[in-house]
Amino acid sequence: MTETVDPETVKKYLVTGGAGYVGSVVAARLLERGHRVTVLDDLSTGFAEAVPAGAEFIEGRIQDVARWLDGPPGSAGGSPTYDGVLHFAAFSQVGESVAKPEKYWENNVGGTMALLAAMRSAGVRRLVFSSTAATYGEPETVPITETAPTAPTSPYGASKLAVDHMIGGECAAHGLAAVSLRYFNVAGAYGSLGERHEPESHLIPLVLQVALGDREAISVYGDDYPTPDGTCVRDYIHVADLAEAHLLALDAMTSDAVPAGEHLVCNLGNGNGFSVREVVETVRKVTGHPIPEITAPRRAGDPAVLVASAEAARERLGWTPSRPDLADVVADAWAFARARHEGGPA
Questions:
Q1: Which of 7, 112, 253, 316 has the fewest CB atoms within 10 Å distance of its CB?
Q2: What sign does the CA torsion over 182, 239, 345, 338 have?
Q3: Which residues have CB under 8 Å from 287's CB, separation 6+?
Q4: Whether the predicted pLDDT of 248 surpasses 70
């Protein structure tokens, strides 16, 4: 439902990767705010039907973004084509990045270089970047703050960290205002928009596949970690809460709370961790289905605990998760997964 908005506050935004999971939800929320939205996506991992109704859709590569972003530079007295960019166009599979690192450097880093150059040329001076907790690697302390050492353990995490460094340089040298949002574990759904990676590697949708009968059991990788039940603990955040953080980041830049020349980095998480077995048990309760488990050996590089401190997002953006309950996250994801399984609108 579109919110009541002042026409004077309506902006035009480009959402790269807006046919993907998080990008599509953010695009939908921007439209509900009354903004004009253009989605740019090559559909290599996204889905055309996930582009929200009301958004203009361009099927194209991020490397060619100048074709659609170009306009009279603001410094030359013209009006930029967009009021800002929200950048989600990245490959994000950790395992694939190890096998094909060149794919991640070319798209995630090379694509963002092309985007920053096009934004500079077109006079577009606001950017929200979809970053990741994978930039931190194995944490020395938890909860993880933005000042924690960054030591990514995969080319995926390294590519995202490289982009954060690039954005910081662009802000300092050319007056870009930017916010990098480092996600932890995103889950849940927003109406007909939800998680459907191919292949799927995330815990909640994998457990839901067991509930749907598409998978026989869920593998629990390691049950001897130094945690209360021996399984890994992770911080889960509802995708709608994540989307709200992007809108607040835009608000902060529009109001100059994040001024030109600043690159703000914020972690996004609930600050509470849930173990693998807690997630499985929550799925059992929400779905009413038994979820068989198979205990498997630890996966290399899996830290025991990954939990975020989101104090910076609270202080600078005014962001507080409104859906911190794991059962609510799972319930929304279950509704989406069941609708897709039954051939519904999702």
A1: 7
A2: positive
A3: 208, 211, 334
A4: yes
Active site residue 21: no
Calculate the alpha carbon distances from 172 to 165, 169, 260 in Å: 11, 5, 9
Distance from C-alpha of 278 to C-alpha of 207, rounded to nearest angstrom: 12
Query: Average pLDDT in the 28-48 region?
Result: 97
Q: How many residues does the chain have?
A: 346
Contact in structure between 231 and 222 (CB atoms under 8 Å): yes
Tokens of 333: 């994801």
Structure tokens given for 84: 């800002």
Res 302: pLDDT: 81
- DSSP 8-state symbol, 298: P
Q: What is the pLDDT of residues 275-311, one digit of tens each?
A: 999 999 999 999 999 999 999 999 877 888 889 999 9
Rg of the chain's alpha carbons, rounded to an integer? 20
Pick from 232, 250, 279: nearest CA to 178? 250
Residue 114 · residue 62 · CB < 8 Å: yes
In this prediction the pTM is 0.93
User: What are the distances in angstroms from CA 192 to CA 21, 37, 209, 237?
Assistant: 11, 18, 17, 18
Q: Residue 71: its pLDDT value, please?
A: 54
Say how far apart CA 140 and CA 306 lie, in whole Å. Answer: 10
Which residue's structure tokens are 């933005």? 146
| Residue 130 to residue 110: CA distance in whole angstroms | 15
Over 90: is that where the pLDDT of 232 sits?
yes
What gap in Å lies between CA 129 and CA 111, rounded to an integer?
13
Measured distance CA(152)–CA(134) in Å, rounded: 6
Short-list 180, 182, 189, 181, CA closest to 25 = 189
Identify the active-site residue in 82, 104, 156, 225.
Answer: 156
Nearest to 211 by CA among 286, 291, 326, 282: 291
Cβ(205)–Cβ(333) below 8 Å: yes
